[in-house]
Amino acid sequence: MSRATKRVLLVDSVIWPHGLEPDPRRDVCGWFRRWTPPSLPVEWTRVGVETDINAAHSPGTWDGVILSGSPRDAWTEDSVNLQLGQWILRCRDAGVPVLGVCYGHQLMGRVLGARVAPHPEGLELGNTAVTLTPAGRASRLFDGLPDHFDVLSSHSDVVSDLPPGVLHTVAGTFAANQGIQDSTGLLHGVQFHPETDPDSLRLIWNPRRELWRPRVRFDLDSVLDHLKPAPSGPRILHNFLKHFVRG
Description:
The protein is α/β, with parallel strands linked by helices. Helices cover 28% and strands 25% of the residues.
């Protein structure tokens, strides 16, 4: 492996319902890996969220880390949240950039001192309009993006009440804090899913439709059946790999 190759660890926190038939499309690392620019040499490694990451991996082994989304609640005191929170801070202290997505974003906000809690209106799902703040426009994570763009969302918890030193980079109407960055410029979080596309989001949600229909205040099936691509998401992943991940 050339030293120019960037070593990225993907922490896969997705939990699939029991009893599903095997399906190669449920490759969470692949969802991120597919957007890697051909000109950018990246070696991807996946680790499951149940792994004791602090014991198994030294932050200095990696040039960058991505924490995926998950149906887990980042605000609970379970052991997975606690160990991943420690890992985020260890990466920051070792100078390793981290991108937190959805659950990863919420967990990052929590360890930085923000409040994380269920949204009082429940679920945000599907195509979502977001806006860059002045801090977001200044961040290379959003290079090449307009002030307003569309993303794909799937969450019912949110980050709120940001403490001093945590920058608000992306704003939304349902979830106000759609993007955050710490004071070192190493930790970045986005509430939405830059890695996904309509087919991937439906793959996640198809087994859950029956359970969630009575829980939401909108037409769940209509939202899922009429999802549109959100190409700004892959651009954010490009930017993280290009501008922040060492190599």
